[in-house]
Amino acid sequence: MSSKAVTSVDVARKAGVSQSAVSRFFTPGASVSAKMADKIRIAADELGYRPNVLARAMITGKSRIIGLVVYYFENQFYPEAVEKLSVALQENGYHVLLFMAASTVGDVEPVVQEILDYRVDGIIMVSVSVSSTLSDRCREMGIPVMLFNRDQPGDRLRAVTSDNYEGGRMAARLLLRGRPKRIAHLAGFSGASTQIDREAGFLDALGDAGTGLHARAEGNFHYADAADATRQLFDVADPPDALFVTDDHMAMAALDVIRHEFQLRVPDEVAVVGFDDLPQAAWPSFNLSTIRQPINQMVSAAVAELIAAIEGAVDVRKIRIPPTPIVRGTTRPE
User: Fold this and answer.
1) Res 211 pLDDT > 70
2) Which of 17, 120, 124, 223 shows the greatest Cβ crowding within 10 Å of its Cβ?
3) CATH number 3.40.50.2300 given to 62-162+295-322
């Protein structure tokens, strides 16, 4: 062949089939006979043909591309979530474009505009919030948006999370069984729905037990900030003897500071509970008691809901999946 781009017409001519048969062969979900598929596959391989996904999108109105937006990968929950979401979408015949947001809120509009330029069929925001103006724009364009591990007030955005409020209550119960006297909370970013809900459940469970919070500091979901916040909590005359940390990533920072800088014994002098159950939480160096997010169920639900929306479902659901307490070596027995 010459240097010009190979087209589906070229493949059809070489395979001795119609151009529409070639189009069906390269369309996920469509079918051709096994004999015809073999002819098309051989011809396409010999010619070096690959379908132009964006060109097809202009014709069909469907790109089978999902825009995936994530803020950062410092916390190992997010690489795992992105990997599982990508695999699940690919298994359903969708391609994934990954975009990085500048922050969890407020700065996503340029990123989403870039995504829309690719004529995506849907968008998944992983722990990233979206403005009402931007969500309305996506809705007007017929592009469904799914929030993953994040939720927003109102009923116009689909969302899949664990039951963060109940997870906060579980964390309180794990700490309370050790009968602590000074319970502290190491929070993440105060505007995140995960933080708000987990803290609300935690405080309500403490209140139900007739106790309250001794101290609180914010680690903003970053290791260095969480380490500084831990120093703030423990560099006092009456440091906590129990600590709930909003996620495992910050809990690992807290454990490093508690053990290596303050030389405190965990859990004898300080009990610690995290949230997420990262793979690293089970490592012997951390052995962290935590609240497990059901990430596989969350991914399955998010992908199923998004695909249903792409195919025309109008119901906008907010799905909350129950978490599970995981007891390891950083909490005291009853």
Assistant:
1) yes
2) 124
3) yes
The tens digit of pLDDT for each residue in 267-300 reads 999 999 999 999 999 999 999 999 999 999 999 9
Instruction: Write the pLDDT tens digit of every residue in 32-61.
Output: 788 888 888 898 888 888 776 555 555 555
Of 122, 145, 124, whose CA–CA distance to 64 is shortest? 122
**Rounded Cα–Cα distance for residues 57 and 93 (Å):** 14
Would you identify the CATH topology of the domain 164-293? Rossmann fold (3.40.50)
Task: Specify the pLDDT at position 32.
Answer: 79
Q: Mind giving me the DSSP string for 193-249?
A: HHHHHHHHHHHHHHHHTT---SEEEE-TT-HHHHHHHHHHHHSSSS--SEEEESSHH
The enclosing H or E element of 310 equals: helix 295-310
Q: In this structure, how many other beta carbons lie within 10 angstroms of the beta carbon of residue 240?
A: 28
Peptide bond into 110 cis (omega under 30): no
Largest CA distance in the chain: 84
288 contacts 259 by C-beta, under 8 angstroms: no
The span from the CA of 98 to the CA of 69, in Å, is: 6
SS3 content of the chain, % helix, strand, coil (to 5): 45, 15, 40
**Residue of 191, 195, 117, 177 lying closest to 331 (CA atoms):** 177
Q: What is the DSSP string of 240-277?
A: -SEEEESSHHHHHHHHHHHHHTS---TTTT-EEE-SB-
With cut-offs at 50, 70 and 90, classify the pLDDT of residue 205: very high
Domain limits, CATH 1.10.260.40, in the chain: 8-51
The string of pLDDT tens digits covering residues 148-169 is 999 988 768 899 999 999 999 9
Q: Residue 214: its pLDDT value, please?
A: 97
Can you give the pLDDT at residue 138?
Answer: 84
* Residue 12 structure tokens: 């059809």
What's the whole-number mean pLDDT along residues 210-221? 97
Contact, 213 vs 240, CB < 8 A? no
CA distances from 163 to 17, 98, 150, 191, 207 (A): 53, 26, 11, 17, 19
